[in-house]
Design a protein that fits this description.
Blueprint lengths: L1 H28 L3 H18 L1 E6 L11 E4 L6 H8 L5 E5 L8 H8 L2 E3 L4 H16 L4 E3 L17 H9 L3 E7 L1 H4 L10 E7 L13 H21 L8
Parallel strand pairs: 1-7, 2-5, 2-6, 3-4, 3-5
Antiparallel strand pairs: 6-7
Helix pairs in contact: 1-2, 2-3, 5-6
Length: about 240
């Protein structure tokens, strides 16, 4: 409980003190790099305060300079920060509309091009995905969690098709990612943060340049199978063994 309170206080103070500088710099230079540097520094410090370690495997499969839609399973609150930290590109993310109601943080997410999805309003969700498609076409990588919400029990849930249609329209490869451990660090519905290890596997990216929009279901299922295989592999190994 004390650990969580200290971490949240640090993040709040960090954002309040650093965000104005980063926002002004970004607006003047039209360069979002400082926002990502600020975020990665905060993630490293907060992770150390929490006692969270990250192990990564398959990172060599992500080719430098290539654009990807990173698609991951969703186990906990630490998934997005971990991926933003370990992916060697400045990624945008597809987030729930509720995230855009958080003061200051919502402004930072808008500046870097995060795309909010309001799933209860299909017309708005479609418009958001079209915006995301345009950014992908411009060479801006994305992170997406097609389950749409965190897993309550750690098992892989059904995927939603929207982000795969987005990848097909943009002709962007899909990079499946398996993540495990964040749920144990902060189980759904809890405040406390526990020390632990988050494991990440980058699978072989799936090219989409020879696919059509009619292949969305196939692409979605292929991606889900790879992520599921990563979870099965992690279950067979002791925690933290998947390093690289």
């Amino acid at each position: 409980m004390i650990r969580a309170t200290l971490v949240y206080l640090f993040i709040g103070l960090y954002v309040v003190l650093m965000a104005p500088i980063a926002v002004v710099w970004t607006l003047v230079t039209r360069d979002t790099a400082i926002l990502y540097k600020m975020a990665r520094l905060a993630i490293r410090i907060a992770g150390s305060m929490c006692g969270v370690k990250v192990t990564v495997r398959g990172k060599e499969r992500i080719r430098p300079g290539y654009n990807y839609l990173f698609v991951s399973n969703h186990q906990g609150n630490f998934d997005a920060p971990v991926l933003l930290h370990v992916i060697p590109r400045d990624c945008r993310a597809i987030v729930k509309q509720e995230m855009m109601r958080i003061p200051v943080l919502s402004l930072l997410m808008k500046l870097v091009g995060f795309v909010p999805i309001e799933r209860s309003r299909p017309a708005r969700a479609h418009k958001s995905l079209e915006y995301g498609t345009r950014l992908l076409k411009q060479g801006r990588p994305f992170i997406a969690f097609p389950e749409g919400t965190r897993s309550r029990d750690g098992r892989l849930g059904p995927f939603k098709k929207g982000v795969f249609v987005m990848a097909l329209k943009a002709g962007t490869p899909v990079a499946p990612v398996t993540i495990r451990g964040s749920r144990e660090i902060q189980p759904p519905g809890t405040y406390a943060i526990r020390p632990g290890t988050v494991e990440v596997i980058f699978h072989e990216p799936i090219p989409t340049d020879r696919m059509t929009r009619q292949d969305a279901d196939c692409l979605m299922e292929r991606t889900r199978c790879l992520i599921a295989s990563g979870l099965e592999e992690m279950e067979r190994l002791p925690r933290g063994l998947a390093t690289g």
